[in-house]
Amino acid sequence: MKVCVGTIVHHPEDARIMHRQIRALLDAGHEVTYIAPFTHCNVTPPQEIRAIDVPRAVGLRRGRAHRAARAALRKGVKDADLLLVHDIELLFLLPRRRPTTVWDVHEDIAGSLETKPYLSELMRRLLPHLVHGVERRAERRHRLILAEAAYRDRFTGNHPVVPNTTYVPVTPPPPPGDSRIVYVGHLSEARGVVEMIELARRLRPHGIRLDLIGGADAAVRPLLRDAQREGLLDWFGYVPNDHALRMAQGALAGLSLLHDVPNYRQSLPTKVIEYMARGIPVITTPLPHAASIVGRADCGLIVPYGDVDAMTQAVLRLRDDPERRAVMGAHGYAEARGHYHWPDQARDFVSHLEEWAVHVPSPALHRVVPA
């Protein structure tokens, strides 16, 4: 099977796209063409794939990225058996003649608009209605894969769920240490970057440092650079997921301090599972899915939204109790290995694409989709 995978929004090394889905397709013996912003993100494509480079869609000025994506999609699907897209805006750019098209729904797109600082208040009010309309239209025309079971409420059909799990090492990781805490993932105000900087400030007298591993929104980069110059933390910028998790291993705790915004309420933060997989106790805000897993598995501590005092006390409590820390790390690893190991979902993911690719697309899929 030949699969064309496309994104102009996500980083080419996005963990779900590159390290899970594309890797699963390659391991199953399929050929992959990958349309992604390689040059923009300074990424060298792996040799196993056929890469098509496009600009990245950032902020409000996305016209150049859209024009390039339209041409790249025409090129990428010429001999493809299936097209897998990861951005809602690519649904407006699909070529007239294309194979069966699958949209991988990563997030609550309408809910995420609240966290986009470049959008005006008017756009934040109007865009959710447009997004819901595009979702309904996409459901009629394409196949859908959902990253969360909760996303089913937005659609009428029974679409398969492919959760955002992770690779869990076969061998249990070493016990957590006592001198650093980590955060792995994109950095933004809604993801708790302001609280993390203040937390680092309060922990410095205790000899505990903060490692931040991930890219950042433009709005918070000055805060991070200032904090790093002050010696409060180490910010490593974007690091490919597999390497980032190796860097996190052995930390005292992993942070997931997301705010209570619509896009996060329905989702399980993948970073929580990633910390568990590496034997790191989790410190999380009380988002429903994260708090449920951490509480049930007894693999971390839950702190109130925005409460840096509580976050500081949680870190110090773990630092001062090495036995409890080790037990939480072991519990998290066991839970992740038993329920959140990506290869267990990879087989279903590949099977869905193989099933859909063998069917001839209906005439509706060959109609022009207005931009």
From TrEMBL:
Coiled coil: none annotated. It comes from the Bacteria. It is an enzyme of class 2 (transferase). Gene3D superfamilies: Glycogen Phosphorylase B (3.40.50.2000). Pfam families: Glycos_transf_1. Residues 176-333 form the Glycosyl transferase family domain. GO terms for molecular function: glycosyltransferase activity. The keyword Plastid does not apply. Its EC number is 2.4.-.-. Keywords: Glycosyltransferase, Transferase. This is Glycosyltransferase. It comes from Sphaerisporangium corydalis. The lineage of its organism: Bacteria, Bacillati, Actinomycetota, Actinomycetes, Streptosporangiales.
